[in-house]
Amino acid sequence: MAKRSTQGTAPRAPRSPRRAEALSREAIVQAATDLLDEGGETALTMRALTARLHTGYGAIYHHVADRNDLLAAATDDVIAHVLAGVVVDADPPEALRRLALGLFDAIDAHPWVGTELSRQPWRPVLLEFYENIGRLLNALGVPARARFDAAGTLVNYILGVAAQNAANTRYLAGGDTDRDAFLTAVAAQWTRLDAGRYPFVHEAATRLREHDDREQFLAGVDIFLAGIATLR
After folding, report:
1. Are 148 and 196 in a shared domain?
2. What is the spatial distance between Cα 29 and Cα 110, in angstroms, rounded to a whole number?
3. pLDDT interval class at 2 (50, 70, 90)
4. Predicted confidence (pLDDT) per residue in 183-227, tens digit
5. DSSP secondary structure of 181-208
6. Fewest CB within 10 A of the end CB: N or C in the chain?
7. 104 within 8 A of 165, measured Cβ to Cβ
């Protein structure tokens, strides 16, 4: 049988590499987290994910329902790591500080988590966080009648400050001004205000330039701890 001529035939495009190992939900969530960390929510598309994992859409949809399910799973994974770092038998005030700071740092490292939590604030993993807060407040002697309000106040503080800090970081990342230059410019505006009308703002201007967001967040947690001490 004569060989078929290959003259005039366009060369085949090389195939994209395929994954040798079985694709797991954990691997998909990790790849999604990497994309989110690199480019925010808009960077997470199924096309980008298939390219990152060298796989097809069907393999991904076998493990997750859709993009929203994937965002939720990545968020759950980040918060689960925070909860895993809680020392159960630690001194309650210190454990509460670690828990609060753990979520603050997680949202600082993964700003998209704050956005996702605002869309779905009572996901099961966040309820675990809430349960840990309640347990620690109980260990601190906060009476049952006050624990609901105390837990809500603290959780709202943690999520609110962490999300705002992440938003500030994103805002500065999108421009040409770094944090120090931005705060210096704002502080200069404050000092030009009428000191008679804004005495505290003038006083705060110096601290604004030099303050550390993380330390200020912890100061707020300590103020909360001092406040709930009066409930005993």
Report:
1. yes
2. 14
3. very low
4. 999 999 999 999 999 999 999 998 998 899 999 999 999 999 999
5. HHHHHHHHHHHTS-TTT-HHHHHHHHHH
6. N
7. yes
Those residues whose C-beta lies under 8 Å from the C-beta of residue 53, and which sit 6 or more positions away, are: 19, 23, 27, 28, 31, 59, 60
Q: What is the span of the domain harbouring residue 201?
A: 76-229
Residues 164 and 90 in one domain: yes
Same domain, 166 and 211: yes
Contact 29, 74 (CB under 8 A): yes
C-beta of residue 204 within 8 angstroms of C-beta of residue 115:
no
- pLDDT tens digits, 141-183: 999 999 999 999 999 999 999 989 888 877 877 777 788 888 9
The number of folded domains in the chain is 2
71 falls within a domain = no
CATH of the domain at 59: 1.10.10.60
- Summary mean pLDDT of the chain: 87
Residue 146 within a domain: yes
How far apart CA 142 and CA 147 sit, in angstroms, is 6
What predicted TM-score, i.e. pTM, was given to this entire model? 0.82
Residue-wise over 109-139: b if at least 16 C-beta within 10 A, else e? ebbbbbbbbeeeeebebbebbbebbbbbbee
